[in-house]
Design brief:
The protein is mainly alpha-helical and about 250 residues long. It has 2 domains: about 130 residues; about 120 residues, no CATH class. It is globular.
Length: about 250
């Protein structure tokens, strides 16, 4: 960063991705001052060239960093900045992903009621989304309803469970496997293992059924570890949830 600022040709260096990464790393280690410093260095009004200059994998990484920064801003109490940045995404389904993760982290880490404001934003964006585009091929990977079902199942309650069931019913049959696993995961994380087991339909393949039951066992083990204050398997938790947290905005 310093070299880019001081070098005679430094003005031509695109620092947007660097600023995103450094801002997120600062927030992750609890240094919100440095995080905001890098956030202000990021060109929020004109970063399309930074986003589009790479191949699809690098662009996906850029968008995930942008989504993570929205989350970190929300967690640090910068709600106005978080919303403004979320609205910088091009597509409504991309914005929905940002709001889902903002709501999820605010609820799980802070039980902050603002989570429900962001959840409402997801439904607002959903009014403009044609979900049929996610039905076939590689676009299945960017159907955010899977993440939304997970979030609502995590929070629980009659109303949100009903909304999650409605979303689940709207997903075509051949794509329901990911939604089932998300639903089971969310219910199990809430601590209701019996209801999580009952949420496993008989129509799953043996592999999908095994994954669903493994998630219930994993959550039960996690609850026991938390009661004992043990964190030996925390790295494994991150490994299991990686695909739910990393969004493949541009499936190949």
């Amino acid at each position: 960063m310093a070299l880019g600022d001081t070098h005679p040709q430094g003005k031509g260096l695109d620092q947007n991705l660097i600023c995103l990464i450094l801002a997120n790393r600062a927030f992750d280690r609890g240094d919100s001052i440095s995080g905001m410093d890098y956030y202000h260095r990021f060109n929020k009004d004109d970063f399309a060239a930074s986003r589009d200059k790479y191949e699809y994998l690098e662009k996906t990484f850029f968008l995930n960093q942008l989504k993570d920064l929205c989350v970190n801003l929300a967690l640090s109490g910068r709600q106005q900045e978080a919303v403004s940045l979320a609205e910088k995404f091009e597509q409504d389904h991309e914005k929905a992903f940002a709001y889902i993760f903002m709501a999820e982290k605010l609820y799980l880490k802070q039980t902050n009621p603002l989570a429900f404001v962001y959840l409402d934003s997801v439904f607002s964006k959903s009014k403009e989304v044609d979900f049929s585009q996610f039905n076939f091929g590689a676009n299945r990977a960017i159907d955010y309803r899977v993440n939304l079902i997970l979030l609502m199942s995590r929070i629980g309650g009659k109303q949100l469970n009903g909304l999650a069931n409605n979303l689940f019913a709207d997903i075509i049959e051949q794509n329901k496997d990911g939604a089932v696993i998300s639903k089971v995961y969310g219910i199990a994380e809430e601590g209701n293992f019996y209801r999580a087991k009952m949420a496993i339909p008989s129509t799953l393949t043996e592999r999908e059924d095994l994954i669903s039951r493994a998630i219930i066992v994993w959550q039960a083990c996690q609850k026991k570890e938390m009661e004992k204050g043990e964190l030996r398997w925390k790295a494994m938790d991150h490994f299991i949830t990686h695909d739910l947290n990393y969004i493949f905005y541009l499936p190949n």
